[in-house]
Amino acid sequence: MQPPGTEQESETSPIYSKPEPEPQPTEPEPQPTEPELQPTEQEQQPTEQEPQPTVQAEIRTDAQRPSFKSWVHAHPFCFSSLVVIVVLSILTVIIVPSAVCSTAGCGSSKNDNEPESIANSLRLLVRFTEPDASVAKLLPLLSKYFNTTKLGSSRLEVLQFEDGKFLTEVKNLLKAKYADKLDTLGDDFVLSSGTTVQVPLTALLSPEAPPQPEAPIQPAQPFAPNMPPISDTEVIASRGRRSAQAVLDSTKPDPFEPLMWHLKAVNAAEAWALTRGLPEVIVAVMDGGIDIEHPDLKGNIWVNKDEIPDNGIDDDRNGYIDDVYGYDFAGPCTVDWRSTISPPPAPATTSAPPPSAAAGRSLLQSRRSPPPPPRSPPPPRSPPPPFNANPVDRLWSPFECGSDNDPRPDKPMDNGHGTHVAGIVAAVRGNKIGGAGLAPRVRIMVLKVADPWNNFYASNVFAAYDYALKMGAHVLTNSFGPRQPVFNPTAFQKAEAARQELLYTRAVQPLADKGVLLVAAAGNENSNLDGLRDVGMNYLPCTLDLPNVLCVGASDNATKLWQEVFYNRDIGTNYGPRTVDIAAPGVRVLSTTPFGDSVTGNYDLKSGSSMAAPLVSGVAALVLSVLGAESGNFFQAARAKSILLESGTTQTGLQVVTQRTVDAARAVQTAQAFGIDGVHLLAPMSVDVAAKSGALLRSLTESYYRLSAAMVATLEADVAKAPHVSSPALTTLGLTPFATAARPAAGALRGFKHNGADVMVAIRGHLNLPSRGVYGLRVASTSPLALIAVTVGQRRLSWKVQTAGSTYEARLQVDTAPAWFEFEVLYAGVADGIEYAWSFPSSFNYWGPLPEGWLVTATMAPAKPLPYVPRDMPTARNAPAFHVTAAVGGFQLLWSAMPANSTQLDATGSSPADPAAAIVFNPNFLSTLSPDQHYSYSVFVDELAFSTSTTFVSALAGGAITASRADAGALAEAGSGPVYGIATTYIQSIVDGLSAVAFRVTCTHCQLYLDGLLFHETVDAAYVPGFPALPTTTTRITPCVTLDPVRNANATGVNRPRHQLQIRFATTSRSSAAGLAIQHGACTSPDLDAFMSMRPIMAPAPWYRASSAPSSAANGSIQCDAWDSDAVGQPEYMQLANIPRPEDVPPLARFRMPNTRATSFVCPVGQLCAAGRNFTTTTNNVLPQNSLPSSLYVRCWAWMGRGFRSGLVTVYLSDRLPTVVYLAGQQVFRSGDWTVVRQSRAPNTTFLSGNFRQIMAVEWHGVSPFSWLSMTEGRVDFPSDVSVSIPIDTSFFAPAP
Ligand SMILES: [Ca+2]
Ligand SMILES: [Ca+2]
Ligand SMILES: [Ca+2]
Ligand SMILES: [Ca+2]
């Protein structure tokens, strides 16, 4: 059985080769549809296609010379000969590459010159700020040289010129004289439907393909405009309307539906169970022509009921004569109307019927009549038509060979694009032929805006927008965009792009205002549209920044973005994590094509975002059918857009804004949820929070903001204006964060550290809901001041407390589960606490707290090892016995004494009388501490367990020290004033399964951070705003922490993730009692006494404790690893390359220092190093020279039993390349320029008590075989005395490899 669509097209003209699906199954190569990819068309229609802009440009130039022009009029025959010669010579140029293109794949660079030729458009688009202004009024003397149409909605004026020089004149005059009145002005510009890939239907139709419909097709119905569409049996529940004549049942599938994978991919069947769309919903397809007589479309074509067809009268007075199914804004021109070679075939007046082939006959009649003869250019010597001598603003009318009322495809050039798009939206379902559109009962308004060469001129598109708005379309589908994205724009191109965007925005704004949705295709250049944005370009209309514009990319059947190789060319959808909203199936989509059999119709497969956009338009039509079912208001673009985006299926990593593909079923279900009064649909986060995070805190974070007086007034007037404090607009809102902390997630929120009418607290976390359904959230406050805004799953719920004790409730619909939702409470006018309670789908009348673990705060980053720290500690195999120990871990304490004359401000912004108090009591000060800043001293301790100031200060100074030590000043400093710093350790979940821990913390003031996330703060509530008495030490228990919530089953032992635990502290030794201590315990035991030593959960760290002091007899050593720069990869601009660990990526070469082949210097300072035992070399000294690449990354490292002398280290590299030094997890040195004195700011390591050793790593980035690598320490006068190198003594130890 021969499938439909494979019959030979009987009407195919011998002149043209039809780019439609070919019947030969042996023909494997699909025919491209883009002009660039249509060599056959180009070859056979050269005079009408590519040469056009060039010829136009040529004539434009000539038009500047009236003498030549008058010569043309006087010698028309000579001129036409000249044109023929010009055209033929261009032909020669065009055909050759075209022929190559057809066999070897098509490049896409041919349009490079097009912007210039387009700039010579004969149409100008103008908009004034004053509604009544017009060009004709302002420039009456010039008005006879143009026709003008003003679009009612956008007030854009389209000026049509006969001659480019008048256009230029008008443009210049407007800019010079009326700049104050001008809103925008620009040349008309051209878009295109871009590359779509076409596949012959035979590729899809296998022997198992569904059979042809057996039942006889219903008798062909007369298809007259005034006939109502074929009715069907559907019950429209909301209207209670039922059709009496049941001839069509859209609940029944059609034969091609099993082949329409895109329907299944978006769960169309589930959506159709709820709605197949309402006939009141109108989708305007703006494209090439649509075959409105296609048997699978004609039942769903919109009809303008107020227009009597074919009487030559604009019955409904909308400005368009006999516009029954829509309009053809571009027309069938055989030549571009912008060319002055081809004068228009008819004068432009409002009263005359349009000069289309169908003029004077009904569309039905014209269909029955023989096809029109092949079009040919009008004689070039015809004189230009007389323009109306006194043009006034008038309604849209045919310009030259332009618009007409027949929006059907222009045979035979039409590539089927428009008809295909229309079928995807709304092909008829239940008629037992073909397939089904996604919204098979909505209506299609036919707006033909493309000419037969796929040119979508903006002037035509804008006029169509105006028409669609006027005639009540609810959704517009736009499968077109720029001819070619320009990623290296010139200043001129950028300025043009900005002008075009402004024009376009003006044209679409009225649609946004009314609530008409515009669904646009992202294009098929396989390009990142974010990149276009970044270089100041755009991709119209997809990148329009308007709330009703939805930008759609194409996905394949594996739910990845569409990409494939086609004719040796990589093609694929455009994408953009900041620009393209969502993806939808757009590959090998089966749909209707024109010129087919009047009973079965034509079908084919096409690929591209051009197919994805109408699919989304169909889903939008279903959503609007639900949203407007009760009210009849289908103009709900913003709501439909957010439903479409939020209800999509998450495909993590998909390069679109939402990381989602569209899901019709969930979209319709979501729309129904909107219909339930007071229910808010929650939008899930697009990531699995637990999988992404190294740790989950069973708590909410809280941040405090001081509100400006203006913001307080704003909030009191309208609590819904509470800002999103995480937004970039924060600063403009007058909010000043002044403290952060965390609190348990369950129960009431009270006991705020700061309060007052001008204080707002932001409480945030991540909500994990396990099942679908409707949840309840109840919030109560006893404060009459309270202004509360809860944002959950991107739904903002705002309440203003009217009377103390008021209770507020919201119902929250969850359609995706399990899923994570962002949760934020903004509480302004902080006074007494607020309470919240939840109800659940299973028990709606129960109100209570959330179960443990449902509301958490995540680190949102995995725990990562430090790249320069070796995975393994020294072992008996690779180290002398005195290095081997079971006691790993410990704490590193980095600290500084506060300078005596500190200028630290307190939280209120004033400088306190007592600087010590300012440091100790200002919680913001702790937040500013960072391990990247410089601290004067460092020391290591086994445990942080100091209960008094005496023991603590002693520990800071490294215990018993002697006056002979260089760092003896530390104890004196610490003993005389307040100190601050960071204590760091690394923890991991232990093997026996303990993964949730809490900590017991003792301090005067401290903050705890886990993997960088603040989760506990001890700061007494009483401190603000005055300066009360100095606090005593406080002991508190932190919220519970779940480590490694999604455990990697293979991660055991040392491979388990390490989490950095950081305690930032400030204390004073002058206090009678001040200490610092931390213990850990199980989350289930709130008993303070149940907490114990940190040792069981401490992980290997960038330091460890050896079993005994190093042997003085042992030689020191440093291990160096070298990688080929090419293998490691280039760093980001201004960043360091990420040099791997040798365990992860084997180095190209390894060597040790000291090295007998290394360059040797005498070490004169204190005679510390013998010859050859210093650190100075080139890599070609120590490595086989012939094996070295030109550029290496070199890392040298060792466990170091001391610090750098006086905290100073200098690194030398004889190239201007980065060097960096890490010491015990801290980056203590970084330089990218050898001219800078390379002095480190490492902390002065006071004392490695208990045989601690810390990892020292120095990295040289981009080393040539001849680069000098050298380290010195304890000196500042480098490099004048290069002989001072670091002595590799017994302080340095590297395990045997
Ligand atoms: Ca009309
Ligand atoms: Ca009429
Ligand atoms: Ca037409
Ligand atoms: Ca059908």
Characterization of this structure:
The protein is an alpha+beta fold and 1297 residues long. It is 18% helix and 25% strand. It is built from 25 helices and 59 strands. Strands 25, 26, 27, 28, 30, 31, 33, 36, 39, 41, 44, 45 and 47 form a 13-stranded antiparallel sheet that branches. Strands 48, 49, 50, 52, 54, 55, 57 and 59 form an eight-stranded antiparallel sheet that branches. The two termini are 73 Å apart. The relative contact order is 0.07. It binds calcium ion (CA) (4 copies). One calcium ion (CA) binds next to loops. InterPro entries: Peptidase_S8/S53_dom, Peptidase_S8/S53_dom_sf, Peptidase_S8/S53_subtilisin, Peptidase_S8_His-AS, Peptidase_S8_subtilisin-rel, PfSUB1-like_cat_dom. One of its GO terms (molecular function) is serine-type endopeptidase activity. Residues 1-56, 208-228, 338-418 are annotated as: Disordered. Residues 22-33, 342-356, 369-388 have a biased composition (Pro residues). Keywords: Hydrolase, Membrane, Protease, Serine protease, Transmembrane, Transmembrane helix.
